[in-house]
Structures are given as structure tokens and as C-alpha cells.
Specification:
The chain is α/β, with parallel strands linked by helices and 283 residues long. The chain folds into two domains: 50 residues, no CATH class; 187 residues, Vaccinia Virus protein VP39 (Rossmann fold). The chain has ten helices and nine strands. The longest helix has 18 residues. The termini are far apart. The N terminus is likely disordered.
């Protein structure tokens, strides 16, 4: 599903009646509202809605500027359908690079130790944890977020994998028994500099929790807190993975290095993604 921040302009007039709502009519309504991917979004709305009235309401919500994922209640991520409640951070396709890198590390842990412990910090909807559990199979999975709405959403998305969702501030939310045992720590921390939050598309700025976006003056404040404590939670050879902007990557790697971790960077130009990985030395 596209995450389409290009919706602009004031909402069109009230929608037509639900009866006779067609793909062409929904597409026209969305296109008039400035939705770049109007045809695909119209298909998703009509495929998701249980009734014509629900389709009409979804169309009106999307035309008014709400994120498509909040309108239909789900997002496609790593070939999974992830539930996304109103106000919860919408998983971005670029984050699939983080999942890919984390899954490779998880498979190595499985091969070496026969088990893998995954923690998904700043979990939002729990999409990363759910995707890792799907990729790895036998996984002890914990997800945590400061936002209760996100935790409730994540709990549903990771339930099938036997995952547990916790509400709290970073590592304080995790069970103490995980200290020194985490093989893969996915920490999709906010990394938008405070001064740039106002420049984000309205879909993110107005409809997602600010704590999921604002990373402090240089965008790295939350990462610094994660890096300072990650070594105590990671298993020997375990890794923490974070997203960063392309121009932040070197500084982010330095932050992980300052936390005693061996840092490297992975990129994917097609996804427009940069992931910084910090590994606890095995000895």
C-alpha cells in the first residue's frame, strides 16, 4: 500500500451517496483532493470496505487528508497486512531494509544458538516485530512503545507470533530478564530534527504522534539514549538496527560507536533507505 503524503488542498464537496459508488467515482474524488495514487487507493478502499456506506465514509476521510492506512485500518508491509489504528505511526516501505538486515542477523543467531530473541523498540504498530517473526519462525518477540495507542495496536499485530507488547520509555518497558539476551534489537527511533517536523507532509505531521517523528534538535536524541544502554541488553554478538537520514548516517554510526558498539551502514537506493547497525563485540 502506498504511503502517499502528496494529498493537498481543501476537501471537495460532500460525497455522492454510497449507492452506485464505483472505482471511477472514488478515483475521481481522490484525484480532485490531490491524491497522486488515486486509482490504486480507490481499489484499496473498495476492496476493504464491507458496505457501500463504509466505502463512502473511507473515501470522504481520505479526501479530507487522512492517511490512507488510517482510513482503511491497515498497511501492507513486508507482504503482511498490518493493522494501523488512527494516530499510530504508519509503517513505511523504506523500513523493509531494516527488516531485511535484521532478519539476516536473526538467522545467524538461530544457526548459532538455536533460538533468537527480538526486541522491537519504538514499535509503533509492531510492523517490524511482526515481519521479523514471520521471517524467522521461532522467535521470542517483545515490542515496546511509549504511546499506549501504539502498544495496543502492536499487541494485536504480534499476537499470532506469541509476541508481548509493553508500554513504557525505551528499555524501561522491557522485562529485566531480557538483559544480555537480545540478539536483534530493532529500534525504529524518531530521527526527524525538531525544526523539520513542521516541514513534514500533513499526513505525518497532523495524523501521527509527534513522539514517533521528533528526534530532537539534530534528530539523534532518542538514538543517543538507545545507544547508551543497548550494550547491556544485547547478547554477545547481538545487534541494534536503526534508521537514519542519509546525511545523518555518519553521525548515527558515531553515536553507536560511542556506546561501545561496532557500527556499519546499509543502504538501499531503490527504497531510499539507510540503516545503521551497531553490534556488541562477542568478547
Amino acid at each position: 500500500m502506498p504511503h502517499t503524503p502528496e494529498t493537498a488542498g481543501s476537501p471537495p464537496a460532500a460525497p455522492q451517496s454510497a449507492e452506485g459508488l464505483t472505482h471511477a467515482a472514488v478515483t475521481a474524488r481522490l484525484r480532485a483532493a490531490g491524491c497522486v495514487f488515486a486509482e490504486e487507493e480507490a481499489r484499496i478502499i473498495l476492496d476493504t470496505a464491507a458496505t457501500p456506506a463504509e466505502a463512502a465514509a473511507m473515501t470522504a476521510g481520505r479526501a479530507a487528508g487522512r492517511p490512507l492506512e488510517h482510513v482503511v485500518g491497515w498497511a501492507e508491509f513486508c507482504s503482511l497486512r498490518i493493522e494501523v489504528d488512527a494516530g499510530v505511526f504508519v509503517p513505511r516501505r523504506r523500513t523493509e531494509l531494516l527488516v531485511r538486515e535484521a532478519a539476516a542477523l536473526g538467522r545467524a543467531a538461530l544457526a548459532a544458538r538455536g533460538r533468537v530473541v527480538v526486541a522491537d523498540l519504538c514499535c509503533g504498530s509492531g510492523a517490524v516485530g511482526a515481519a521479523l517473526a514471520a521471517a524467522l519462525g521461532r522467535t521470542e518477540l517483545h515490542a515496546a512503545d511509549l504511546d499506549p495507542a501504539a502498544v495496543a495496536c502492536a499487541a494485536r499485530n504480534i499476537a499470532a507470533a506469541g509476541g508481548r507488547a509493553h508500554c513504557g520509555d525505551l528499555f524501561a518497558a522491557l522485562p529485566a530478564a531480557l538483559r544480555g539476551r537480545v540478539d536483534v534489537l530493532a529500534a525504529n527511533v524518531p530521527y526527524v530534527p525538531t525544526g523539520a517536523v513542521a516541514l513534514l507532509p500533513s499526513e505525518a505531521r497532523d495524523h501521527e504522534a509527534r513522539i514517533a517523528l521528533d528526534g530532537g534538535p539534530d534528530g539523534l536524541d532518542v538514538l543517543r539514549r538507545v545507544a547508551a544502554d543497548a550494550g547491556g541488553w544485547l547478547a554477545p554478538g547481538g545487534s541494534v538496527l536503526v534508521e537514519a537520514g542519509e546525511r545523518q548516517a555518519a553521525a548515527a554510526a558515531g553515536v553507536l560507536g560511542d556506546g561501545g558498539l561496532l557500527a556499519r551502514t546499509a543502504t538501499d537506493d531503490d527504497l531510499g533507505a539507510t540503516v545503521v547497525i551497531g553490534t556488541r563485540p562477542s568478547r
